[in-house]
Amino acid sequence: MDPAADLNAALLRAHPAAARCLSPLGRRLYFPKGIPVQSREAAGARFNATIGQLRGADGHAAPLPALAPMLQGLDPDEAFLYAPQGGLPRLRQAWARRLAARAAPQAAPSLSLPFVTGGITHALSLLADLFVGPETNVLLPDPAWDNYVHIFGTRCGARLHSYRSVGPAGLDLGALEAGLAGLEGPALVVLNLPSNPGGYAPTLDQAEQLAQLLAAQPGPLVVLLDDAYQGMVWEGGHLAQSLLHRLGALADPERLLVVSADGATKELFFFGGRVAFATFATPPAAAPALEEKLTAAIRVSVSCASSPAQAMVATALADPGLQAQRDAQHADLAARWRALRAALAAEGVEAWPFNAAFFALLPVQGDPEALRRALLADGLGVVSAGAGQNLRLSYATLQADEMAPVAAILAKRLRA
Ligand SMILES: Cc1ncc(COP(=O)(O)O)c(C=O)c1O
User: Which residue of 122, 145, 153, 401 has the fewest C-beta atoms within 10 A of its own C-beta?
Assistant: First the structure.
């Protein structure tokens, strides 16, 4: 009996595209009936002598007094004991409700239960374990978040390709279409909207064209949506929510697997919490096999995500004040965006279209790294790495009244 082969056969029946896109590691992964499984099976036993974690005489977690007060307000069992591999059930349910609330009623595909990871980077990395090997063609946006090259290229050894994501008129659909047409064999394409480093979300019309373009691909193709900045769009008429639902509703499992990575990192401004999710838009029949592959991948890497952070996010999601608190942060970020746009325009500093997330991308002549160093000498830190002939400015770390002096420094150097 070969459990991985059985699992792969089940996935092939339920989701042919997903099965055909598995990497060599992805094909080998299965979740063994080891300690976590046997411990769960013994949960109701009179004496559960399975798992290596400490319970006190009352049957609950027994944290040291040096640690316990710091997590007051959290359930000690949730915060101090191991979470299941897929994450705390109430957190997964709460994130599932959050995702479902964003779907248009006419386009609500079935989604797998969000799988908890240690940050969005970890979600991408686990998905890369499943679907990216040395033979996989991976199509990345250009410019892109600089870690993609290392996750898919350095770590997985994949064949990397790129498509220009944004042109002067917004989303460059032609470039994506050409990039997709050049892919051979099982492939994976990354979409990151709103984008880093572009800080751009497409118009609703463009988003619909994008969904149609992807849905028409012959496959087998994994569409990986990095939705880190979902909801952070400062201009009306642009895509504020993930394409997960729209694309999931259009996707044919014979050809396309759609999966999102999102999380509390940016959406709840909990950067250090390392709580994120991987969610498949898939027919329910394929969800258990895909979840088992992820469970196996997390078990062999970090075993499960950190419990206290999961308990904190689950508790925050149940707080009726959360939405108003986020709205206030968004209003503040939108004010910074407006102030930066106005300051750049006043100084005549050119920028690619930017309307979302935390970033503005400024095209530059000459060596961006030399320019970055010169700006640093002027007292302004920006990023050049991974952004081609561009500098990335994160306005989330600046105050609205700092945009004018920042734009003046930029203008001086960019005109020089
Ligand atoms: C597009 C994008 N994806 C993923 C990440 C990583 O998120 P996390 O800190 O949750 O790993 C970032 C963080 O900057 C990002 O900009």
Answer: 401
Tell me which residue has its CA closest to atom 2 in ligand 1: 228
Is 189 domain-assigned?
yes
Q: Which domain holds residue 347?
A: 322-415
The residue contributing the CA closest to ligand 1 atom 7 is 120
Last residue of a domain, one of 274, 294, 317: 317
Ligand 1 atom with minimal separation from the 276 CA: 10
C-alpha span between 113 and 280 (Å, rounded): 8
Report the pLDDT value the prediction gives residue 386, as an integer from 0 to 100: 65
Q: How far apart are CA 334 and CA 273, in angstroms?
A: 24
Specify the pLDDT at position 347.
96
CA of 261 to the centre of ligand 1 (A): 10
Q: Quick one: what percent of the chain has pLDDT higher than 90?
A: 93
**Tens-place pLDDT, residues 352-409:** 999 999 999 999 988 999 999 999 999 999 999 766 799 999 999 999 999 999 999 9
- Is any ligand 1 atom within 6 A of the Cβ of residue 275? no
121 CB near ligand 1 (under 6 Å): yes
pLDDT at residue 168, rounded to an integer: 81
Residue matched to tokens 């959050």: 98
Report which DSSP code applies to 79: H
Opening angle at CA 282, ends 276 and 288, nearest 5: 75
For residue 218, how far is its CA from the centre of ligand 1 (angstroms)? 29
CB 357 near ligand 1, within 6 Å: no
Structure tokens at 337: 């965006």
CATH code for the domain of 272: 3.40.640.10
State which residues of the chain have pLDDT below 50.
Answer: none
Domain count, the chain: 2
The atom number, within ligand 1, closest to the CA of 145 reads 1
302 and 346 both lie in a single domain = no
Q: What is the pLDDT of residues 49-91, one digit of tens each?
A: 999 999 999 999 999 999 999 999 999 999 999 999 999 999 9
What pTM value is reported for the model? 0.97
With residues binned 3-state (H G I as helix, E B as strand, rest as coil), the percentages for the chain, rounded to 5, are 45, 15, 40
Residue 143 Cβ inside 6 Å of ligand 1? The answer reads: no
